[in-house]
Write a structure and sequence with these properties.
Elements lengths: L11 H15 L14 E3 L4 E3 L2 E3 H18 L2 H18 L10 E3 L2 E4 L2 E2 H16 L5 H15 L1 E2 L4 E2 L2 E2 L10 E2 H18 L2 H18 L10 E2 L23 E2 H15 L6 H17 L10 E2 L5 E3 L2 E2 H18 L2 H18 L10 E2 L9 E3 L6 H11 L3
Antiparallel strand pairs: 1-2, 1-17, 3-4, 4-5, 6-9, 7-8, 10-11, 12-13, 13-14, 15-16
Helix pairs in contact: 1-2, 1-12, 2-3, 2-4, 2-12, 4-5, 4-6, 6-7, 6-8, 7-8, 8-9, 8-10, 9-10, 10-11, 10-12
Length: 396
């Protein structure tokens, strides 16, 4: 059985085939030709259980998925789908009066018009990837989105982005979070690679340094998720909801490895000497804190005292961690990282990958059992898993 016989996880053909299989789970029936955009809520078997709800994160991640696949496979259908996604993003999520983007839609009707930096980070990533894939009009949208974030979210005092602003930009909440800044850093790297404009790389490096050195200095080198208006740690925010979808409590194992990956990618464009050492420290800490010695896989969250506070296994944590292991292994030549790449892949191949219907299961419990049959609720759409494969392929 596929679950037992492991492929060669480093093999280019395996990685390309795995991307194809995930794309096959979504394409073409994720495309909504009536309302526009994409269906976003899939059960394990690929059936759609919610035809109407549209989340900004899924709307933009689908554009990323299709743009990346268009480049990998030189597929015109995928380019057309990416353009289809951009059309919905600009006609319905985008408020042409305010410049903001609706967080949630019901078909073409806005149900939550809050402006989230996290959402705009994925808007920027979508446009940047689309432009890289050859969709020329997206270049202006990159600049437009960067300028919007600069105007409303960027703090010159703290040199990081705020998190949440109401629909008319009049009220900025006091909450500050590292997650939105991390994904903005990711999007800025893509914007730089797409346009070769230095300002995007400079901003990505500044965010990375302020989160991974300055803010991490407040937590003994680890990266806490939640802060107050002055970027001081808020240890209690969402303590009662460690599994919150976008603002979970605890040190996030997957965010430590995701930062590790981003720092190595940044080092390709910058010779700042702290990037490699911090990338290694963050990865090593994540593995030490998060690996489940009993059942395999990486846990979700770890409390400030080092205890696991959420022992579920999330698909994206495994995907980001294997990508980080690969880029570190390639950069350092250290077999330690290749061993972790293989180990995380072996766990994921056995437990997270759906060998019957395709794509990855979203979440498993500590014993690697599913909670439900919902493969892709809002936000998932396998951007992490295919993105990890692309990162490994990019190593050559």
């Amino acid at each position: 059985m596929n679950e037992i016989n492991n492929p060669n996880f480093k093999d280019k053909e395996f990685l390309i085939g795995h991307i194809k299989s995930i794309m096959g789970f979504y394409h073409p029936h994720c495309i909504d030709n009536e309302t526009g955009g994409f269906f976003q809520h899939f059960k394990d078997d690929g059936s759609i259980y919610d035809l109407d709800t549209r989340h900004l994160v899924s709307s933009t991640r689908f554009i990323f998925n299709y743009s990346m696949a268009a480049m990998q496979f030189n597929n015109v259908e995928y380019i057309d789908a990416a353009k289809h996604g951009i059309d919905y993003l600009r006609e319905h999520h985008l408020n042409k009066d305010t410049g903001g983007y609706a967080w949630m839609m019901n078909g073409k009707e806005v149900t939550d018009s809050t402006n989230y930096c996290y959402g705009l980070a994925f808007v920027l990533l979508a446009y940047s990837t689309a432009y890289k894939a050859g969709i020329k009009e997206a270049k202006n949208y990159i600049e437009e989105t960067f300028d919007l974030m600069e105007k409303y979210f960027w703090s010159k005092e703290h040199e990081l982005y705020s998190d949440e602003i109401n629909s008319d930009w009049s009220i900025v909440t006091n909450y500050r979070g590292q997650n939105a800044n991390m994904h903005t850093c990711e999007a800025l790297i893509q914007a730089f690679e797409s346009t070769n404009e230095q300002k995007y790389l400079d901003r990505a490096l500044l965010i990375a340094k302020n989160i991974c050195i300055r803010q991490a200095g407040l937590a003994d080198g680890l990266i806490w998720e939640h802060y107050d208006i002055n970027w001081q740690i808020d240890w209690s925010y969402n303590k009662d909801t460690p599994d919150d979808l976008f603002r979970p409590w605890g040190f996030q194992v997957g965010h430590l490895t995701e930062w590790s990956k981003l720092l190595i990618i940044l080092e390709r464009h910058s010779k700042e000497d702290w990037l490699l050492s911090r990338a290694q420290e963050l990865f090593d800490d994540a593995i030490e804190m998060g690996w489940d010695e009993k059942s395999g896989g990486l846990f979700y969250g770890v409390a400030p005292n080092g205890d696991v506070c959420d022992n579920d296994k999330y698909f994206w944590v495994q995907a980001e961690s294997l990508a980080a292991a690969a880029v570190l292994a390639h950069r350092t030549g250290d077999e330690y990282y290749w061993d972790w790449y293989e180990g995380i892949w072996e766990y994921s191949w056995k437990h997270m990958v759906d060998h019957k219907y395709g794509a990855w299961f979203r979440i498993l419990d500590s014993k690697n059992m599913k909670y439900d049959n919902l493969k892709s609720p809002a936000g998932k759409v396998d951007y992490h898993t295919m993105g990890a494969c692309y990162e490994v392929l990019n190593l050559g």
